[in-house]
Protein 1
Amino acid sequence: MSLQPDALRSFQMCIGGEWTDALSGNTFDSLNPATGQVWAQFPDADERDVNCAVDAAHTAFHSSEWRSLTPTARGKLLRKLGDLIAENTETLAQLESIDNGKLIRETRGQVGYLPEFFYYTAGLADKIEGETLPLDKPDMMAYTIREPIGVIAAIIPWNSPLYLTAIKVAPALAAGNTVVLKPSEHASATLVELVKLAEQAGIPKGVLNVVTGFGPSTGAALTSHPLVRKIAFTGGAATARHVIRSSAENFARLSLELGGKSPQIVFADADLESAVNGIVAGIFAASGQSCVAGSRLLIHKDVYEPFITALAERAARIKIGNPQADDSEMGPMATAAQLAVVEDFVARAKADGARLRLGGKRPDMAQGWYYEPTIFECNSNADYLMQEEVFGPVAAVIPFETEEEALAMANDSNYGLAAGIWTRDIARAHRMARDVHSGIIWVNTYRAVSAMASIGGFKHSGYGRESGIDSVLEYTERKTVWINLSSEPMADPFVMR
Ligand code: TXE
């Protein structure tokens, strides 16, 4: 089946199991990045809609229908949802490609793997265990219980909506929470569809809600709502600061995944062909709109010139085209605003004296927000382009002489999400893995993802971890229960026990 990107689609939100428009009746347009044309309309939720959604999630959280489900039963629901996603892979992949301009090749791969997050997390639902504590008090025993937190606000960006939602919603539900999902205003379609599948899977009404709308209105109303107990956010650092301020009002817990300026470090002994492909994957896949984009290339001086030449040759062959075409290798930027950001970065890099090796302009296309793969040679790791996240297909390159110098440059960044190390020297690979400050280290590979492996950042890349075995625990409160084993009456009230 092939979806028609030209036919205007209309979507609703799901609040407490009811499919609905915004109370105001207002809608907003979503644009297809390959054409710049409106392809869908969504309800523009305001504070009243958000209040209804949070109330529905709060009611569902305390409902016997949800609370009385055993963890094993919750796991079964998540497994069913995974099956339904698997059955609908092609539709979801096409929708996401039309909505955010991501290559159909990539959305097929990402959606094809998505069920694994639900299956893996489903298996964790009934393995959330408490502990008995070895106390230093002979007449007492204590144990811990892990409980769900309550209503979770999941705030999702536009670059990989389904994936970034799966790694929040699956563990949140496995642990027994309820969720209000807020997609990006630029890519809401697949998250609305996901909630439909959750309904089909039998997840009770109100447990998973979706409100569509803009960040400063819908998003801010949700993150500052007093009944929201945790906010799971992926997006930019500037928005994260707003979210942190909102959370402070109600002491909501937070997890933040905020992107980076991830180094790709190529040593002279590396398999250079693999390194070229790994670097192309890291910065030009998804047109660089990836939180883990390997945008800072540190190349050993002995291989610097031949490496950059090979990289530029490979990047110049990238087939830019309609993201829905099977043979396209790079699609458009997801939004016109993001294209403008890329153009500003390129202008500034030129003004700062960086040397353009490739790209640096829009390709000759009749329509859409495309940008060429771009490579700049920088003068210093302190350059703006070496330090700031572009979120576009722009690589900043610099040579190094020693391992110490490479390490110092890798760590001289506010960010710390991912790093790629390219070497055949096993001791050096482990040294770098130990010493580079980032949440993910890829050795002789890049952009590998698994439901079993955690993602998350150091420093300005955020805090909290998603995916992997601990992800479910991030959605629990730990409670300590004390039992007095003594049959003696409590005598003195004014002593510490
Ligand atoms: O994300 P935003 P944007 C980076 C990238 C990009 C920049 C901005 O560098 O250029 O962030 O991207 C919601 N209260 N990343 O504007 O603004 C918003 O509606 C509550 C990194 O798309 O961070 C959307 O649902 N919510 C990144 C979500 O926050 C608010 C992925 C993300 O929006 C809000 C994308 C508010 N006040 C961009 N304002 C990554 N880590 O992968 C906005 N939102």
Protein 2
Amino acid sequence: MKNDIKEILFTEEAIKRRVKELGAMITKEFEGEKLLLIGVLKGCFVFLADLSRQIDLDCEIRFLTASSYGFSSVTSSKVKIDKDVGFDVKDKHVIIVEDILDTGLTLTALHAMLVGQKPASLKTCALLDKQERREVPFEADYTGFICPNEFVVGYGLDYAEKYRSLPYVAVLKPEIYTT
Ligand code: IMP
Ligand code: MG
């Protein structure tokens, strides 16, 4: 797996530091409240696990599935989400937790769907933000790092279901994407 890596963009240490900062920000902002963290599967699983342990508040943790990429590294511009979330959002302070904000289509669709269920507040948190790739205007309330316009893997992010368990965020060698 490590032989496929061209370059590490965000190291394990840098991510740890930033996640701690995000957790502290969220803790301060929601002092005295309970939170509902909704992770967008599957890419969020590592980030949400680490972030939730840096938030010093009562947290309910739920997951939603959204997919726009399938097995390719080129977006299909179509977002599939479960319309029936299967849990209650009404009157709760909700933060949607995403691995990466890319075209903005996923978070735009999820945000619109959840707003309709009348949460007390609704915020979004993305570890990475590929600002250059935006197709619809959407900004996260909490962002870990601005990410260059490259397909990245690791810390939950995959390429064809591989590399999610790498502890850092990296770019693969070009030949990996073409084989
Ligand atoms: P958006 O709807 O284009 O903003 O898509 C965001 C989703 O696409 C993320 O939740 C990821 O699952 C996936 N994605 C976007 N960029 C990358 C990448 O560089 N590596 C892995 N997955 C990505
Ligand atoms: Mg995702």
